[in-house]
Structures are given as C-alpha cells and as structure tokens.
Amino acid sequence: MATLSSSMASTPNPKPRLRGVVFDMDGTLTVPVIDFPAMYQAVLGQEEYLRIRAESPSGIDILHQIENWSPEKQQKAYQTIADFERQGLDRLQIMPGAAELCGYLDSKRIRRGLITRNVMTAVDLFHQRFGITFSPALSREFRPYKPDPAPLLHICSVWDVQPDEVIMVGDSLKDDVRCGKEAGAFTCLLDETGRYDSPEYANVDHKPDFKVSSLVEIHTLLESKFHLEP
C-alpha cells in the first residue's frame, strides 16, 4: 500500500481536490534501462563521480555538474549522455500499470502531463510506441529543467490549475520530488526496490508526501486521499 508521510497525516477532511497528475518518464512511465552510474562515471571520471556521490545523498545532477564546463568539454559530455540515452531508446518498455493508470485518469477526466530530463526525441518515441499522449510533455529542451519547479509551474499555468491541485509522480528524490515540492504540488515517489528506505536518505531536504512501490498502487492512493475533479 502507499504510505502517507507524517506531514500529510493531519490533512483535514474534505479531501484535497486533484485536477492533474504530472509524471516523470525514465524509471516512472518506462522501465529503467539507462545505467546512470555508468553514465555518470563516463562523464565525470570515476574519482570525481565517487566524490560527488559521497556529497550528494539524493543523487547526482549530471546536467548541473557540466553546466559551467568549457564548451568543448561540455559538448563531449552531452554526446556521452546522448549515447547512453540512445541505447536506452532501443530497449524502451512501458512500466507495468502505466497504461491502466492513464486509462483510469482519462475515465475521471484528470489531466496528464509529463516532465523529463531526457530529450524530446525520447518523448515522441514513447508517445508513438505506446499510443499514450501527455500534454504538456516537457523535455530538457524546456529550460530551466527539473529539479527547478519552472516546468511544473508552466504545466499548471497551461492547465489553469493551482500547484496544490496537482501531484508530481516520479522515481527521483533529487529531481521529481524536489521539483514538485518547490512548486507547491503534492508528490509521490515511485520506489520499486525500497532503495529510499536506506538510512542515507533519512535527512534529505525534500521528502515525498506519498511513496509507492508500483504504479498499480497509485490508483488506490488517488481514490483514498483525493477528491478527483477535472
């Protein structure tokens, strides 16, 4: 079952209104296929990777790390990242429960959006391959990208809804939960393996309102915790 954080335990009735769900893509709507530690080491070098990993318990923001590099070094880093992402596209699979959850949201007329740090080519391929469309669907071409709250606030503006009428669903504390929290939205962390139960994540700055181990659980979570209204 989904777990309710202590910060949400005192939420009074009536249930908060929910008008939209915004999803991360890689590792949330799609099965994780990119070897991120290998990608980070390829970009940063092993020594620098280990140093940054020790200082960043929530995970490494590789795009942020390379922002101030020289143009030549940055171009090489982006090429390495693109190579790993391209390999991931070849193995793209939809996450179990994603299609059913989207069908449920459609039946309730709840909006569906997407925010990813991947490129728009990957988003287009997802839409085409699985026949499920998200709108707006923002890739890293939208600046600033996650974890900045700007993309989520942009979606709320397009939808003409308040951030506290939206929930951000993703598998990353550092990107998805932080983005949602800083925008003022509800957040749900998808943690399939229980990795975020580790003590190293006990004192992170941004904690999710809810945590689930599969997308299948989100249907029940939304039904029990929110008033679903278009």
UniProtKB/TrEMBL annotation:
GO cellular component term, pick one: chloroplast
Gene3D superfamilies on file: 1.10.260.80, HAD superfamily/HAD-like
A Pfam family annotated for this UniProt entry: Hydrolase
InterPro entries named among the record's database cross-references: HAD-like_sf, HAD-SF_hydro_IA, HAD_sf
Top-rank taxon: Eukaryota
Name of the protein in question: Haloacid dehalogenase-like hydrolase domain-containing protein
Organism in which the protein naturally occurs: Cannabis sativa (Hemp)
